[in-house]
Amino acid sequence: MDPETIGFMPAVELAELIRTKKISPVEYMCALLARIAVLEPKLNAFAHLAADRAMDDAKKAEAALMSGAPIGRLHGVPATIKDFVPTKDMPTQRGSKIFSGDQSIEDAPVVTRLRGEGAIILGKTTVSEFGWSGVSRSPLTGITSNPWKIDYNAGASSAGAGAAAAAGYGPLHQGGDGAGSIRMPAHFSGVFGLKPSFGRVPCYPLSVSDMTTHMGPITRTIADSALMLEVMAGPHFLDHTSLEAGPANYLARLRDSLKGRRIAYSPDLGVARVDTEVAKLVKAAATRFEELGAIVEEAPTPWAKDGPELVRFFWSAHMSRLARYFPEWEAEMDPGLVACVRHSENVSVARYQEMRQRKMAYVSNIHRWFQDWDFLLTPSVSVAAFPAEKLMPDHWPSHPWDWIMWAEFCYPFNMSWNPAASVPCGFTRAGLPVGLQIVGKRFDDLGVLQASAAFEQLQPWADKRPRL
After folding, report:
1. What's the CA angle centered on 354, arms 349 and 356, to 5 degrees?
2. N or C: which end of the chain has fewer CB within 10 A?
3. What pLDDT, on a 0 to 100 scale, did the predictor assign at position 445?
4. Secondary structure of the chain: what % helix, strand, coil (to 5)?
5. 3-state secondary structure of 444
6. What is the rounded distance in angstroms from the CA atom of residue 244 to the CA atom of residue 431?
7. 181 is catalytic
8. What distance in Å separates the CA atoms of residue 234 and residue 225, rounded to the nearest whole number?
9. Is the pLDDT of residue 109 over 90?
10. Based on C-alpha coordinates, what's the Rg of the chain?
11. H-run or E-run covering 188
12. CA–CA separation, 459 vs 25, rounded Å?
């Protein structure tokens, strides 16, 4: 089997071939690591590649298989971990020189669960510094390239995870999303990304960004995301915000009719600027849900008007905690991050609480609005990929730190905790991917997966691969 076929094989298929001894975990890992060795100098998706450890684990997986020992659902299947998530045998550096080489003493729950089902951790994927921006670069690792165009933005903060999924670095990639950091890389890199309901997948350590960070999968197929979510989801004692309910059987329940489902479509949420090509592709994708029997209507979103002011206040205010590093590290930090931190250096506790009260009303209005709709369709992001050394595309207004201008569709559902996915829906004339966002009611992760799977059947994308 050639390295490209190996790299793009879905986890659901690979796990079955390994279980039935039709593929050797060792031979698979050799081929995959060979592919990564050729492509990684161009893409730079790994902050830390644990090739030797991965080969050792593949040999152990093969020995267990041959001995007839019990195996998990992901036995021998490779996965990557975002470089914010603690791993006891690999550094967790957060995209910053401040934490270069930093080593945790334990694995986070998602890592333990993936390994517990037999997954082999390839390494840690690149991130923007402290996850502050949606652009795939950091002072520590430099630019992570979009596989569809080298040196272009692959999205962030889960930059390496999205690029790795698109490039065929194996099937499973863990991401985190505090204001779009799963959905943006999925959009820019032409793969599937799911931000589950808040608390569905336990986070550790917990973010201090007022409970907006969600853990989820980035994959090439919906089935792989469903399987990965099953493995990662469920309550955990280290995350007191994790949901009590255990994971549903998402994979077995993907196929469900959308007939009669009420779907709202918004081209701009009433607040966002959107590039013309992106808008056209998303509108065409939204109308296709009518072919599935759904009722699709363009609908106003009056709750959205307060979002831009709220997100810009909280994004900067939550980053202000990093000011303590300035005396020693400011010159080594991303200048945009420094500007973002300084924007809130004089914010008072009273002002923060006032804005938080407004945020709670905003969230209530989102959930009240969703009483009339099963799903909401929007663009995932307002623009296609642009040069990764820039914070904004050339044809957008410049700003020292406000990249959020082109990501107005993502953050509302971090605040409100709704599940939301980015589904590939086409390419620009320049051959750059575009994503459709599918948002569901809170807790309806299965519904979002089902709607995504229905669109995947109607307009497949997994066969479309960047020419690397």
Report:
1. 95
2. N
3. 97
4. 45, 15, 40
5. coil
6. 43
7. yes
8. 15
9. yes
10. 21
11. helix 183-189
12. 32
What pLDDT does residue 1 have? 67
What pLDDT is attached to residue 14? 98
pLDDT at residue 225 tops 80 = yes
Cα–Cα distance between 389 and 403 in angstroms, integer?
13
pLDDT tens readout for residues 186-195:
999 999 999 9
Q: How far apart are CA 287 and CA 319, in angstroms?
A: 39
> In this structure, are residues 404 and 315 in contact, taking their beta carbons and an 8 Å threshold?
yes
Q: CB neighbours (10 Å) of residue 203? A: 23
- The active-site residue out of 24, 96, 128, 157 is 157
Q: Which of 436, 431, 437 is nearest to 465 (CA)?
A: 431
Mean pLDDT of the chain: 97
- In the set 82, 124, 149, 195, the catalytic residue is 82
Query: Does a cis peptide bond (omega within 30 degrees of 0) precede residue 205?
Result: yes
Is 382 among the catalytic positions? no
Catalytic residue chosen out of the listed positions 128, 158, 181, 189: 181
What does each C-alpha distance from 54 to 26, 30, 255, 420 come to in angstroms?
9, 10, 34, 32
Q: Is 118 inside any structural domain? A: yes
Contact 97, 190 (CB under 8 A): no
Length of the chain: 468
423, 455 Cβ separation under 8 angstroms: yes
Number of other residues whose CB lies within 10 A of the CB of residue 116: 12
Pairing label, strands 433-440, 295-298: unpaired
Task: Judge whether 230 and 249 are in contact, CB under 8 Å.
Answer: yes
Q: Is the pTM of this model over 0.85?
A: yes
Q: Where in the sequence is the domain holding 211, given as residue range(s)?
A: 9-458
Total domains in the fold of the chain: 1
**464 occurs within a structural domain:** no
Q: What is the average per-residue pLDDT within 14-41?
A: 97
Question: What letter represents residue 39's amino acid?
Answer: L
Residue 169 tokens read as 């670095």
* Longest distance between any two alpha carbons in the chain, whole Å: 63
Q: Report if residue 379 sits inside a domain.
A: yes
Q: What is the CATH number of the domain that holds 201?
A: 3.90.1300.10
- Find, among 169, 138, 168, 172, the residue nearest to 153 by Cα: 138
Nearest-5° Cα angle at 118, 114 to 121: 60
Residue 68 to residue 63: CA distance in whole angstroms: 9
Read off the pLDDT of residues 398-415 as tens digits, 9 standing for 90 and up. 999 999 999 999 999 999
Give buried/exposed letters for 11-43 (b at 16+ CB in 10 A, else e). Answer: bbebbeebbeeebbbbebbebbbebbeebbeeb
465 in any annotated domain: no
